[in-house]
Amino acid sequence: MFGDFEIRDANRSDLKTIVDIYNTTIASRMVTADLEPITEENRVQWFNDHSPAFRPLWVVEDQGSICAWVSFQSFYGRPAYHATAEISIYIHPDFRGRKLGKYLIQKAIDACPSLNIKTLLGFIFGHNEPSIKLFTNFGFEKWAHLPNVAELDGVERDLLILGKRIH
């Protein structure tokens, strides 16, 4: 628990709120490569790919209402990468700027040994300076730079892959 925030594994009934929070980030063109809002139906398989013991999907609640979520996703979908996961953090606009992102990255790092994760990755647009700063403050380093791989409203954008070995 951090302040009034509590983290728990997501339930299927949380998916609508998870999608709603995700959709708040699309218009900024800073966080996701989706260009239009997604639907709950779009994310059912993604939701089902998570499991509390292997690739959790956490929701963060403030007084019983979901205000953020954290996803661990398998990297590249091949067995040899089983100890590598991508982390995604999405925070409702009303809760940004409260150091919740810092808390959630630390919680994710702390959970890695019990999830058998040795390498944690973040896929971040090169122009998303707040997220880059957040991750680098936790020891993530730039492991890859993919120039101009995304096009957002006619503007080509870089994708960075930030990585951290978990000891």
Helix content: 10-25%
Low-confidence stretches: none
Report the portion of residues in β strands.
Answer: 35-45%
How many angstroms separate the termini?
24 Å
Basic shape: globular
Indicate the radius of gyration in whole angstroms: 15 Å
- For the secondary structure, the number of strands is 7
Lateral strand order in the biggest sheet: 1-2-3-4-5-7-6
Determine the structural class based on helices, strands and strand pairing.
alpha+beta
Structure, explained:
The structure is a single chain. With 167 residues, this protein is an alpha+beta fold. The chain has four helices and seven strands. It has helices at 15-23, 44-48, 100-111, 129-136; strands at residues 5-9, 57-62, 65-74, 84-91, 119-125, 141-152, 155-165. It has a seven-stranded mixed β-sheet with strand order 1-2-3-4-5-7-6, with helices on both faces. Strand 6 and strand 7 (155-165) form a beta hairpin. The longest helix has 12 residues, at 100-111. It is globular and about 40 Å long. The chain starts with a strand and ends with a strand.
Comma- or semicolon-separated keywords:
167 residues, alpha+beta, 7 strands, 20% helix, 35% strand, globular
Layout: helices, strands, pairs:
Blueprint: E1 5-9, H1 15-23, H2 44-48, E2 57-62, E3 65-74, E4 84-91, H3 100-111, E5 119-125, H4 129-136, E6 141-152, E7 155-165
Parallel strand pairs: 4-5
Antiparallel strand pairs: 1-2, 2-3, 3-4, 5-7, 6-7
